[in-house]
Amino acid sequence: MTTKKITQPVPAKSSPAKSSPAKPSLAKSSVARSKGAQVKKSAMQADTVRVAAIQMASGANVSANLAEAEQLIELAVDAGARLVALPEFFCIMGLKDSEVVKAREAEGDGPIQAFLSRMAKKHRIWLIGGSVPLESGAANRVRNSCLVYDDRGKQVARYDKIHLFGLDLGNERYQEARLIEPGDKVVIINSPFGRIGLSVCYDLRFPELYRAMPDVDIIVVPSAFTATTGRAHFETLVRARAIENLAYVIAPAQGGYHLSGRETHGDSMIVDPWGVVLDRLPRGSGVVIANINPAYQASLRKSLPALNHRFIRCEQIEIEVIERRAVAKREPTGK
Description:
disordered N terminus
């Protein structure tokens, strides 16, 4: 496997308005540009949790994608991340839909899920496996499933992407419904780091999904936005979901050119509840790092109690709330 260059995250251009509440200082990451790239460790703040969003430009070879994902997970762990999120279909971006169908797995069985479990257990982290193609009710389709593993390597949540992307610009067309069978359930998990709401890519355009997530603290959006739609809308949508829900948003993405000829936007980012981009990576494979500060989030929600001021309620579909708050005691990883 050819190791991809790990690029330096670019600081956000935007900053909070002068009237915004004081934002805590953040320990930023720095990613070296050498072949043996490392994420430089920096001091953790008390009562914060370090999280990571991983960016890839996956291909059609599952084994190669898993090998790259392992390297990037290790970089995130070396930087102190306790919660790590991979992008949509991190394990395969096929040349044809049939390759994705061929790679699909039964829930709880298969090399992709075994890899995610092993990484979570080895590094004692919570790992959000971007999305994985799982079996569906049709022979030629898959479920686009976001799987969550706790620090013991146990799968504790599954969310199947509900909204399926469709685009027709004449010379650029996508119809995910030909490959993906949609889900029908909102999934929230009560984790040691807060209440996490799960979503995937195109879901980001539908704010009612997130309004159906009661009291969510962290929103995760593994994505593979096209270059066209990503340039126009990705940052705006991510920051909007953070602001309107007063939640942290972790948005790992596919970013680069794929063997299929597709170009994905990238720009993986982590955004705070005030809409400030804490860290981002415009292009290429790499790791985005930031600290989540529950006290800061609570202070924002107290100062601006917009979530308590709602009076128009969205019609809710079935919601699954998973309890898994305990975190295992950390042990040496043997690295």
